[in-house]
Amino acid sequence: MGQLGANAHGEVLEAGRVPDCYLGLLLEDADHDGQGAGVLVVAPAVLFHPCVPQPGGTVLYELLTGHPDRTPGQLVFLADLTVELRAWPADTWSKVGIDPQAAARAVLAGWQRGDLLGRPLAGLTGEEVLALARPAMTYVRAQLGERLQRQLVRADRRRRHPASG
Fold this sequence. Notes:
Blueprint: E1 22-27, E2 38-42, H1 56-66, E3 75-77, H2 78-85, H3 93-96, H4 100-113, E4 119-122, H5 126-133, H6 138-160
Parallel strand pairs: 1-3
Antiparallel strand pairs: 1-2, 2-4
Helix pairs in contact: 5-6
């Protein structure tokens, strides 16, 4: 990727290498304890929708789908991308010149209007809500990602086999 170049390990992003991963964005319908909060799960391609500010959407897409450690079906949060960005010379969003929160707000607004597809998943704890905002809380976010990925798999199975659930 031209904008980020090689990271500290000499790795470069290969945008679109894993197009079947997911981006999870915090749905802010929570009370003061984080109860009632959820995550909107979207496909990476939504980052190219005209409602998403560019080049922010493109940079997020490239990091999301092109990171060397990305795996198919993986659920990734903005805080994860923030952590991953630290391996590149332009190690902060401000150095890259984009606002990932602006892109996230645009995706959420597009979904609320019905312009973008996404799957909302509810039931986050207060700690999980914090983990989505704090890059240092990688362990909690990893557990949340695994739990939500299981929900996605179960929902996909039910959708393919309506009689099963």
